[in-house]
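Before going further, learn to read the protein records used in this course. Taken together, the tokens spell out the fold as the letters spell out the chain. A record is reproduced here so that you can trace the correspondence yourselves:

***
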Amino acid sequence: MARIAPSVAAVRLAVRRALPAGGLVLVACSGGADSLALAAAARFVGASVGLVTVDHGLQQGSAERATDVALWAEKSGFVPVEVATVSVEGRPGGPEAAARTARYEALTAAARRHGAVAVLLGHTRDDQAETVLLALARGAGPRGLSGMPAVKGIFLRPLLDVARADTRKACAALGLVPWEDPHNSDPAYARSRVRGSALPALVEALGPAVVASLARSAGQIGQDNEALDAIAADFSGEMVVEALSGLMPAIRKRVLHSWALRLGAPGGALSHRHVEALDALVVAWRGQGPVHLPGGIQVARDHGALVRVP
């Protein structure tokens, strides 16, 4: 019997560990090396596996690329196979954020249509390290530094402990020809600059283990976040300044963040500076006016409590 390439075995093992016990699983596959290796592994180890490829319409030939991925999936036995065509025009944020939002909406809708229990995403250890570096550059707090979660709702990321080099090797070993997304090397995008310059410079200066170390740190910070969020969740009732001021800063800011979300502030737009402004109403009160939150929400301090301004 032919020996399985170590890279193929590594991807398959990661997918096997992540797959739910039963039910249909969809793979989000762009045709790139990471998602292609993920799809091949899921099809090998999974009992019921479908595939969705999203056409953002941002590049010439994107429709043909999506069709090619779908044809490969059908020949490989994926059921169902779907091409989801989305539009990013008019969406808030830059092109990357708009495309990401449209993609996740399409994947969520596909999962609902087909009754899938999970959607697999092809983010690797290298993607996680890049995410941590980008968060550091933005001055993000623990939420940003925790990177991408392995599990978030129906979305699973089985390859966060697998190197990008292994997905490429797995494709080569299986005779799969991945699509090279030109956006991944376009210096107009911050992640492309991190991938092409910043992370390689760190590897050269500190050694190749730095990639795994950054990804591991994200996982550890994520666990700490879960613990702190659980403690913050125990705080209930009105936003009374006296009670809030007695909390440790890390807990208090999580309470304020959660409260802002409950008021209706969109999570994607609610930033560190918004939470800091709310915190200032508690611990640095100087008679300042209301804090403006995303979604047209205003919060003020009134008679010793934080209240939403009508």
